[in-house]
TrEMBL record:
One of its GO terms (molecular function) is efflux transmembrane transporter activity. NCBIfam families: outer_NodT. One of its GO terms (cellular component) is cell outer membrane. Keywords: Lipoprotein, Membrane, Palmitate, Signal, Transmembrane, Transmembrane beta strand. Its main location: membrane. This is Efflux transporter outer membrane subunit. Residues 1-26 form the signal peptide. Belongs to the outer membrane factor (OMF) (TC 1.B.17) family. It is a lipid-anchor.
């Protein structure tokens, strides 16, 4: 005749077989699978970010160095890295729920002149029949991916801000150089017109117009110098330094960095969905959907298996004798009967959180479409450089015209 623990194990096995034979439609209704929750077209957990170091396409060593310094000094990145560590720990905790647990203990006692010794080894395992633990494990994996993507987003945003400030600095320096050249040219024009007026070849109106143009150019220079200083200070703060610490490194004017069409040509059609912020939002949708399934699984019974091995003896030397060994096996089934609707409301709360995650994902997608180029390159590189070049050409033309007039 089978012992009581054996009968419990047999009963539990029968329950497992019964659940396994339940029609698929009932099981699917009870516990959504990950395939019905995850975003199918994206293959989010396998996708990798593109253009991780896009700033290298500008071939500007100083800009690259400043971005690297900013990435190392940023408190936001350190915070995101700590969050990533926590997410990895939570991922390990969730995975441990799928494995058996094992614990041990030992005791020694003296009572009334008698000694007694004992040791025990306990094992337990929850049979994850309705998939709640598996869904929790997958949700933690999605959370980990979301945290990783958020870290990448912080890095990308910081790199874009440094690159933008650097480009603004070079633009301001180029404009300042052009204005100073223009100032010298207009000053020369005023001198030549003054000579012509003395010779009776120019009117007072021409002299007034030349002086007005000279004054307008002089008025532009302080604002441009201030713009250069502000960009230098912004770069110092972004790299974790005091304002003015980079003035020496950034004092010399250099060409405005440009990547031309190379960077845009390397962006695939689905680049919007590969942005770190959008990938993070998508992972959060995946995790929220999986947690709905986890909450639904808690509405159903849980099955546990346990066993223990105990040793007890009046003598430490006899503790390992076969006569002092006691073994036990146990199986248990627990099911919620009445909890005031707590479990159902947990499902409702998780479903509401899923809807929030979907809305945030949609918002991120809209924001990504409108700002696709901002974090990948600075439009001023392509649009403002011709302006500076055109100004230089006009100065050259003006000088040639003034020279011809003098002759």
């Amino acid at each position: 005749m089978a012992s009581t623990p054996q009968r419990l194990l047999i009963s539990l096995a029968v329950c497992m077989v019964t659940v396994a034979c339940t029609p698929a439609s009932i099981r699917d209704t009870a516990t959504p699978t990950s395939s019905t929750i995850q975003i199918q077209p994206s293959n989010a957990l396998a996708r990798k970010p593109i253009q991780a170091a896009w700033w290298q396409t500008f071939h500007d060593p100083l800009m690259t160095a400043l971005i690297q310094e900013a990435l190392q000094a940023s408190p936001d990145i350190k915070t995101a890295q700590a969050s990533l560590r926590a997410a990895r720990a939570q991922r390990a905790i969730a995975g441990a729920s799928l494995l058996p647990s094992l614990s041990s203990g030992a005791s020694a006692r003296r009572s009334g002149g008698n000694d007694s010794y004992g040791a025990n080894l306990d094992a337990s395992w929850e049979a994850d029949i309705f998939g709640g633990n598996r869904l929790a494990d997958k949700a933690s994996a999605a959370d980990l991916q979301a945290t990783q993507a958020s870290l990448e987003d912080v890095k990308a945003s910081l790199a874009a801000e440094v690159a933008s400030s650097y480009v603004n600095l070079r633009l301001a320096q180029a404009r300042l150089a052009v204005s100073r050249q223009s100032l010298a040219s207009r000053d020369e024009t005023v001198r030549l017109i003054g000579l012509k007026q003395q010779a009776g070849l120019a009117s007072g109106l021409e002299t007034d117009q030349a002086n007005l143009s000279l004054g307008q150019t002089q008025a532009q220079i302080p604002a441009l110098i201030n713009s250069v200083t502000q960009s230098q200070h912004a770069l110092a703060i972004l790299t974790g330094k005091e304002p003015g610490a980079l003035n020496t490194r950034l004092a010399a004017a250099k060409p405005i960095p440009t990547a031309g069409g190379q960077l845009l040509n390397n962006i695939p059609a689905n680049a919007i969905r590969q942005r770190p912020d959008i990938r993070a939002a998508e992972y959060k949708v995946t995790a929220a959907g999986l947690r709905v399934g986890e909450a639904k699984a808690n509405l159903y019974p849980s099955f546990n298996l346990g066993g223990s091995l105990s040793l007890s003896s009046l003598s430490l030397a006899d503790l390992l004798d076969t006569g002092s060994i006691a073994r036990s096996l146990a199986a248990s089934i627990s099911a919620p009967l009445f909890d005031g609707g707590r479990l159902k409301q947990q499902v409702e709360a998780k479903d509401a959180a899923r809807e929030q995650a979907v809305a945030s994902y949609q918002k991120s997608g809209i924001r990504g479409v409108t700002g696709r180029s901002k974090q990948l390159f600075h439009p001023a590189i392509a649009t403002r450089t011709p302006t500076v070049t055109g100004a230089k050409c006009r100065i050259g033309t003006q000088r040639r015209t003034s020279g011809a007039t003098q002759l």
